[in-house]
Sequence to fold (303 residues):
Amino acid sequence: MKLDLSLYDKIFENRVRLQIMSVLAANKEYDFNSLKELLDVTDGNLASNLKTLEKEEYIIVEKSFVDRKPNTKYKRTSKGLKAFENHLIALENLIKHQYK
Amino acid sequence: MEQKDLFRELGQIRALMEKSSKFVSISGLSGVLIGCYALIGTGVGSYIISSTTTSMDQVVGNMSVLFLFIVLAISILVLSLLTGWLMARKKAKKNNQPIWNITSKSLLFAVSIPLVTGGVLALMLTAQGHYHMIAAMLLIFYGLALTAGSIYTFTEVKWLGIFEICLGLVAVYSPNQGLLLWGLGFGVLHVVYGFIVYKKYES
Fold:
């Protein structure tokens, strides 16, 4: 059987991006600071990877203010969730393929 | 990619999804302690009953004894909340997880709706003189609060909630056993639950 890699998503080859998407798949929304704490990454690293996901329309950004401090929240889009699920299926298929 | 790397990758995704959506800093030992407070409270309560009157019906007729009961219940509640909060804060510090994050807020919100409803209902029942239903209602609504909050924390909390609801329903059926069922629900169940969580996740 030939391995089908059409579901594999190059965007998620980056670890931080895959982690961000995992968090946003499990939660309705997540804010920048909580993501930073959870993933233990620098501001710049997190911001640039969020930007990439936003450009792909995998996530949407909501900017607001809480007590005059900026509070940025991120949500998955249905496109992003689909891509994430497909990527997981691709990883599972890869495992199954290697078993043979 | 190697197969074991893939397995690890999938495992890490799963762990991250769980960690981001579950608040795991609730201390098992605090559950044991809270259960002990409740057991002591139940003991003191039954001592008050046996030394002053013969049945729960007479307790509610006696204003000073009723007052003593309310003070006892509230002090146990305050002590339990304080213990739970302080020990969660300590565990969160150890886990490097903030105690006040998205998950703990969602947890608090989910728990507070059934809990506040139950509290208001209990006050209304008190005002109308239906004292015999209070133990049952508090057990049931506390159980509902736990099951509602359990999606944001350990799965064991769901089972604790279900058992509390069952005890509450038994208490509806035999209201004279209210104090005993309270001791079982808030005392024994908390000790057992706390011990299981402690064994499974903390030791």
